[in-house]
Amino acid sequence: LVNPAFTDQVVSFTSRGITEATQGKPDLSAPGNTILSAGMGTGNKGLNDSGTSMAAPHVAGLAALVVEAHKGWSAERVKAALMNTATQDVYAGPGQTGPIEGPERVGAGRVVADAAVTQQVLAFNADNRGAVGVSFGEVEVVRSASVHKTVKVENLSDSWARYKVGYQ
């Protein structure tokens, strides 16, 4: 990072929202603001850029680490490990200032590499195979509403796991 204060700050022009299939996007976030990378055609010079083009390689590299640690895992399990452990908050301002951004802007949160690689308990969207994330999409509420989703939890370890879940 050219400016480490941007590690947990959402880029102002990031995409967000509900897809046509009423799934929340993005699924997760990764550092993508002022990333210095190899500059194509520049010899030995770098390129300082921001956006998905800089964040995507972080996620691809992390997914490769998860695959290496868990040979034979499906793409859905790898995605679940990435999303289930993306617990780092992402902020509106640099240096972890300003409001914490919500899931419609940053997905599950910023990726946490060591947690994703060591994760043994995975949660999936049981109603939409491959989606992993649980999104209620657009819900029009006139007086009251009740919406339900089923979450499948898979414990791949040899020990018990206990979680308390919620959303603040």
Which secondary structure elements does this structure contain, and how are they paired or packed?
Layout: E1 17-18, E2 24-25, E3 35-38, E4 46-49, H1 52-69, H2 75-84, E5 91-93, E6 97-100, H3 103-106, H4 113-118, E7 121-125, E8 151-155
Antiparallel strand pairs: 1-2, 3-4, 5-6, 7-8
Helix pairs in contact: 1-2
What does this structure look like?
- The protein is 23% helix and 17% strand.
- It is α+β, with helices and mostly antiparallel strands.
- The strands form 4 sheets. Strands 1-2 form a two-stranded antiparallel sheet. A two-stranded antiparallel ribbon has the order 3-4.
- α1 (52-69) packs across α2 (75-84).
- The protein is globular, with a radius of gyration of 17 Å.
Q: Major sheet: order of its strands?
A: 1-2
Task: Note the main sheet.
Answer: 2 strands, antiparallel
Question: Could you give the count of β-strands?
Answer: 8
Helix content: 10-25%
- What percentage of amino acids are in beta strands? 15-25%
| Shape field | globular
Uncertain regions: pLDDT < 50 for 5+ in a row? none
Q: Which structural category fits the helices and strands? A: alpha+beta
Distance between the termini: 30 Å
- Can you write the helix and strand succession as a string? EEEEHHEEHHEE
